[in-house]
TrEMBL record:
GO terms for molecular function: endonuclease activity. The chain crosses the membrane at residues 46-67, 79-96, 103-121. It comes from Streptomyces actinomycinicus. This is Endonuclease/exonuclease/phosphatase family protein. Keywords: Endonuclease, Hydrolase, Membrane, Nuclease, Transmembrane, Transmembrane helix. Residues 134-336 form the Endonuclease/exonuclease/phosphatase domain. Pfam families: Exo_endo_phos (PF03372). InterPro entries: Endo/exonu/phosph_ase_sf, Endo/exonuclease/phosphatase. Residues 1-22 are annotated as: Disordered. It comes from the Bacteria.
Length: 345
């Protein structure tokens, strides 16, 4: 079969194959026609340049944005990666305005964003054959808990944590998971299922007045592993109060204290923390543990909302073990995606 080729007029009036980059060069020529010798290319686009510099500044000093007014700092940090969307918008606007000043200014937020999140654009997952752990906020209003239980069990996880378990649905989850997991414990609204024996099961007080966190020691073939399961309080964005997260922050501090007192060397934290790794309000936890997604994941691993994930608030964090891979699992009947990881003991 003859190879089809794009044709273009030649100097002799004939036609010949068009080189792949010729159309791009023509487009670039059209966009930049008139730039050379234009005395206004440095004066135009000042507003765009200022916006680009402000964008870079927000990303550079996000940890210093105060939480005193509506927890604005934590809100910014929760959706910090999405600020990168503004970069191509500013770039296109700079080209259309034919502003050299704006185009040069856009370089700064680009460099800052890549420094913060460029590492997440590559696939660091190494596969691996280590212990597989998974966590899922199953949603108290899940219309089909049995199907959700079967879906997460089919992932092959050796240790599975579930959050937001209503008392009425616990027997459904226990029945659906019994064939896969011989050992399990439910404390309040969180539960842990394991293929290996568990000891030392107890509630973790995260200062709520009811039980939404637990820990247990799992006797893996490679030795004991302390597993924490937590569902930190929800945050809200309100017009009159901004990003309200005071109770979440208080619970995060309490969880961090419990993990700091842990005597088992190898620790895994599974759960819905209602916050991202960038949120300074989770420092009591994130300063002690590594994110499996950040260390060995592919992409950002956003987990919420399941219909259009915009943030990773469901976390797998470790210390004393090496993350091998980390990923999100297929959507279930919940408004969160399950997340999973393999760790080398």
């Amino acid at each position: 079969m003859a190879q089809q080729a794009y044709m273009t007029e030649t100097a002799g009036g004939g036609s010949g194959p068009e080189r792949p980059g010729s159309r791009l060069r023509r487009l670039a020529h059209r966009l930049t026609t008139g730039w050379r010798g234009d005395p206004c290319i440095w004066r135009r686009g000042i507003v765009l340049a200022v916006l680009a510099l402000l964008l870079a500044l927000v990303m550079l000093v996000h940890s210093h944005i105060p939480n005193a007014v509506g927890n604005l700092g934590s809100l910014t940090e929760t959706f910090l990666p999405w600020l990168g969307i503004a970069i191509p918008v500013l770039l296109v606007a700079g080209v259309l305005r034919r502003s050299a000043t704006a185009l040069i200014a856009v370089v700064l937020p680009t460099v800052v964003w890549l420094n913060l999140f460029g590492g997440l654009l590559t696939d660091k997952s190494g596969g691996g054959t280590g212990l597989m752990v998974a966590t899922h906020n199953v949603n108290a209003d899940n219309p089909d808990p049995a199907a959700t239980a079967r879906d997460v069990a089919a992932s092959g996880a050796d240790v599975l944590a579930l959050e937001e378990l209503p008392a009425s649905s616990v027997p459904v989850y226990e029945k659906a998971l019994a064939a896969t997991y011989k050992h399990h414990a439910v404390v309040g609204t969180v539960g842990l299922w394991s293929k290996y024996p568990m000891t030392g099961v107890e509630a973790v007080d995260i200062k709520l007045g009811w039980k939404r966190a637990m820990r247990a020691t799992v006797a893996t073939p490679q030795g004991p592993l302390a597993v924490y399961v937590a569902h930190l309080p929800s945050v809200r964005v309100k017009m009159e109060a901004g990003f309200t997260a005071r109770q979440r922050d208080k619970s995060a501090d309490a969880l961090g204290e419990a993990i700091a007192d842990e005597t088992v060397e190898r620790v895994v934290l599974l759960g819905d923390l209602n916050g991202t790794m960038n949120d300074r309000s989770l420092n009591a936890v994130t300063s002690q543990l590594r994110s499996t997604q950040g260390a060995a994941g592919s992409g950002f691993g956003f987990s919420w909302p399941a219909s259009f994930p915009m943030a990773r608030i469901d976390q797998i964090m470790v210390k004393g073990v090496e993350p091998e891979s980390s990923w999100t699992l297929p959507r279930t009947g919940s408004d969160h995606l399950p997340v999973a990881a393999r760790v080398k003991m």
